[in-house]
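Budget justification aside, the reviewers requested a transparent look at the raw inputs and outputs of the sequence design task funded under Objective 1. We therefore reproduce one unedited record. The lines immediately below are the structure tokens for a 194-residue chain.
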């Protein structure tokens, strides 16, 4: 769940980055309003960590120049002056530069979906589709083993519906990954029940 801080005027990304946020809290900027993000549940954290490890290991094995980052800041193309969203994971193949405040050219963004953050998560997902470099958006569920994948089509558009995976292999074309969807749940009780 996301708690919003009410401000009289929309905050810009520049002001947000200079804002002194409370220590130990993660915030994102949504349409000019700083919003505190609730700490992840242990299950959310386990899925996020497992996904990060799987992707990191895959990229290393391929000797890819791409890297996976945890909770990177990304700036949607639309309303870019008042939005900085924070996905659970992001993959970029563009090296960071000193002074970067947001991930450059993400190709894959991943969110972990909890029942309590359904609306906020999907609001972020749809904002990610405006980032020109993003090729895929993966949403991993916490209520059951499963994932929803949005993949940019060859003409640059996004599909009306996501691809759903509950069993079998999941393919992430943006990074050349193929593996069982259950692998993202290896360290959770959900994997035992699948």
């Amino acid at each position: 769940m996301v708690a919003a801080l009410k401000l009289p005027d929309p905050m810009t990304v520049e002001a947000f980055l200079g804002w002194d946020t409370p220590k130990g809290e993660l915030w994102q900027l949504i349409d000019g309003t700083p919003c505190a993000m609730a700490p992840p549940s242990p299950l959310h954290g386990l899925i996020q960590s497992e996904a990060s490890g799987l992707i990191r290991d895959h990229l290393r094995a391929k000797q890819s120049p791409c890297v996976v980052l945890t909770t990177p800041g990304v700036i949607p193309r639309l309303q870019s002056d008042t939005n900085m969203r924070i996905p659970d994971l992001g993959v970029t193949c563009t090296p960071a530069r000193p002074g970067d405040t947001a991930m450059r050219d993400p190709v894959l963004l991943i969110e972990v979906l909890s029942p309590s953050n359904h609306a906020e998560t999907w609001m972020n997902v749809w904002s990610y589709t405006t980032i020109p470099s993003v090729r895929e958006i993966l949403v991993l569920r916490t209520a059951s083993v499963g994932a929803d994948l949005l993949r940019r089509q060859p003409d640059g558009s996004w599909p009306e519906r996501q691809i759903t995976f509950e069993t079998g292999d999941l393919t992430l074309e943006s990074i050349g990954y193929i593996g069982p969807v259950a692998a993202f749940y290896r360290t959770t009780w959900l994997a035992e029940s699948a």
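The radius of gyration is 16 Å. The longest helix spans residues 42-61. Computational costs for records of this kind are itemized in the attached budget.
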